[in-house]
Amino acid sequence: AQKITQTQPGMFVQEKEAVTLDCTYDTSDPSYGLFWYKQPSSGEMIFLIYQGSYDQQNATEGRYSLNFQKARKSANLVISASQLGDSAMYFCAMRAIQGAQKLVFGQGTRLTINP
Amino acid sequence: NAGVTQTPKFQVLKTGQSMTLQCAQDMNHEYMSWYRQDPGMGLRLIHYSVGAGITDQGEVPNGYNVSRSTTEDFPLRLLSAAPSQTSVYFCASSFGQNYYNEQFFGPGTRLTVL
After folding, report:
1. CB of B50 less than 8 A from some CB of A
2. Where would a tag sit more exposed on chain B, N or C end, judged by fewer CB atoms within 10 A?
3. Contact criterion met (CB < 8 Å) for B42 and A106
């Protein structure tokens, strides 16, 4: 069974600072994908970034990057130069080959950017 | 390209009533799924489908039925609504069921059962 753990219920960061949101995962499957989603107060789920278990390099998408440490089973999201619009809930999720139909979510981290 | 659409956006039901949440996608995706999100929690899988005519249960299927008669549509039926089904419901789709396939989410339906 797959499991995602996000240990930071809430984080407060000053605008323009970098922020790291933690995500650890548990799976016995060698093939899996890790996803980060943003959920603003309006409620929609917005895909941010993907990291595959076989990817040699950390994924990057604009201001988002993923600090993937496979041996430690962690996939932390790094947001550089945070903006007020980054205030939202952030979810880490995993999809593994054996349970590929199921996207397993963590409980999320609420990020608040202060001006 | 509308992506994944859901109707209605909001719904209030009385205990025991039935209703259908609609979901449609125009991306020709094989895989579709329904999730529920309860306050302070991540999303949990209710039912999923890997193609027309094929459905299966997820993590929390009790009280819900699904069918998939076309590639585009994947409705979720509440048979006899209960207050425990008060939640936000998301429909999602992906091109395939592989672990690297990104899932695209609809805007959600906020359901309240009194």
Report:
1. yes
2. N
3. yes
